[in-house]
Prior knowledge:
- The protein has helices at 26-35, 47-52, 95-109, 157-161, 165-169, 187-198, 226-235, 245-248, 256-261, 276-279, 289-302, 306-317, 324-338, and strands at 2-6, 39-42, 59-60, 70-74, 114-117, 135-139, 149-150, 175-180, 203-206, 236-240, 266-270, 285-286.
- It is α/β, with parallel strands linked by helices and 345 residues long.
- It folds into two domains: 2-154 and 323-338, Rossmann fold (3-Layer(aba) Sandwich); 160-321, Glycogen Phosphorylase B (Rossmann fold), CATH 3.40.50.
- The strands form two sheets. It has a seven-stranded parallel beta sheet with strand order 3-2-1-4-5-6-7, sandwiched between helices. The protein has a five-stranded parallel beta sheet with strand order 9-8-10-11-12, sandwiched between helices.
- Strand 4, helix 3 (95-109) and strand 5 form a beta-alpha-beta unit.
- The longest helix has 15 residues, at 95-109.
- The protein is globular and about 60 Å long.
Amino acid sequence: MRIGYSFWGFLGPGITDTPDGGRSHRRPFVDALIADGHEIVFLQADRDRAEAGDILDYSFAPDDFPEIDVLFLEWRWPIPGRNTTDCASPGHTCDLHRQNTLLHHYTASRRTPMVIWDKDRRLTADSPWRHDPGVAVCEAALSPSPGATSLLFPVADEWLDNTTPEALARTNRPLSLAYVGNQYDRDDTFDHYFAPAAVHVPHAVVGKWHNTTRWPHVTFLGRHGFHDAMRLYGRALATVLLLPRRYARAGQMTQRIFEAVLSGCLPLCPADIRHAQRFVPPPLLVRTGSDVVHTLHRLRTEAGTDTHIQLLADCVSRLEPFRLSRQVKVLNGLVNTLAPAGGVR
């Protein structure tokens, strides 16, 4: 089928000064869909070319309305001062405006089948799209909203299959604790888990943290490029999986878990996250900042041992639900249900 894919971000590493959590999984997902026989045309701006200077071999139609069988949206929502302003305003991004025109052209007017991937859990509970028979809503959660389908952030099969816990466990890791990610809606969990531990162990935080005065003892390194941020995982023994409450309540784990694990960085998981026991083995569940400190000290004594290797192997095995080939099957099932003949344009 010909899928019109709308997303606001990058397929490659992009640029440093912008958030986009899809860089480790979007391109493998797209390539797997193409390998499965689908044709993909991107309907938002080619930010890889315009902002990062990366020329990638994909089809973009940011201003047109090409013929498609299914519209696939990574859902965008209003962000005051950014995508709700006039197009000529400083700092304006046109992702929401473009999404609205796509919705009007394809779905409201032409009844083109649509899949909404609500990756940030921003689609309101009373949205009419949740009740439209021609629309499938997906969430990256183990317990999605009523009526929604679980479509997790995918990790490439090759990355998963080629990971060697033995080699990762024997890598020198001078940092005991690291965090990669932005501040958004994470102050409380950072306060509870990361900040108390940072007093006691070598650590670093990479990402956009605009208000850090309450944590003067924490080493914030600012934004790093995607590959540099990934390298931080390779220098750290462990990380803490910090989630906004709206994610934690639904068991929506971000891509940070497989970025960390497959770099050999053990993920400590707050026990109050829904399905926490499915994401990490029991020795990596934490309930307080003191738990984080004690766990880090224990992990440091076990570093490089068979216990460490087995713990990493257990973490890798728990990434199976995120496997790319599984997520492609989920999307294919939805697409085939919405447009079984591949001829609805």
